Amino acid sequence: MEWGMKNRLSQLIQKDGRAMFLPIDHGYFQGPTSNLEEPGKTIEPIWPYADAIMLTRGVLRAAIDPAITKPIILRVSGGATMARRDELDNEGITTSVTEAIRLNASAVSMSVYVGSEREHQTLMSLGNLVNECEDYGIPTMAVTSVGTELGKRDARYLALASRIAAEIGARVVKTYYCEEGFEKVVRGCPVPIVIAGGPKADSEFEVFKWIYDALEKGAIGVNLGRNIWQHEHPVAMAKAVRAVIHENATPKEAQDVFDAVKSGKAD
Ligand code: R5P
Fold this sequence. Notes:
By secondary structure, this protein is of the alpha/beta class. Helices cover 42% and strands 15% of the residues. It is built from twelve helices and ten strands. It has helices at 3-12, 27-30, 39-43, 57-63, 97-102, 119-135, 155-168, 182-187, 204-216, 226-229, 234-247, 251-263, and strands at residues 19-23, 52-55, 72-75, 77-78, 92-93, 107-112, 140-144, 172-176, 193-196, 221-223. The strands form two sheets. Strands 1-2-3-6-7-8-9-10 form an eight-stranded parallel barrel, surrounded by six helices. Strands 4-5 form a two-stranded antiparallel ribbon. The N and C termini lie far apart (40 Å). The mean pLDDT is 95. It binds ribose-5-phosphate (R5P). Ribose-5-phosphate (R5P) binds next to α10.
């Protein structure tokens, strides 16, 4: 592996082999979604606890201080919106690799929709993006999204989508956690896996538990958005999630961190 690629990956994946990515890219198809109406304000108290921030160029330019010291994962795909839910898989590349370099991105990310009508289109976009990014030593993270005909948390589907994204050349794959068979998803994917959270869960303990279990089964960390910044206590969530990822905190210990920060007994 070239020095530049290694250097960028080591900015994202920490020395302990773990990673906590904080995505605020949701507006690229959801618009001003809840608690992300003003992304700069949302992220201000929580970014210090993340290892990298994932977002689009528009939000990066408008809302993030260029002096920020966190690595940036630039979302470069889009072209669909919530206004046409049946067309959500109809994505292309919206942001050039030149732009990613100009913005000093440490990685780029794009969605692939395995099992959907535009599966081929998005997988070919991934191949083209990887081809271009590899020339410059920029890692590509594949955001495997949910196909319409296969179950979101079905291990066979997650394993299929993750493996295919890795085969095409993604350096990191984002998928979802599933209780049954997640270790098979990890075993079948030759590159590091991070998990997303999806919509806000009923309890924070639930979030700590599935992150902990995913790490036990081989994931390297998370690309976790709404379960942090849509929570009433985002800083407490960010600190507790960080404790699970980088301090091997159990769900119970993470809950203690959360409760202590929430109640003001800890910073
Ligand atoms: C989808 O909008 C994005 O790709 C997110 O970055 C990804 O789904 C992770 O965010 P969350 O944990 O909110 O699902």
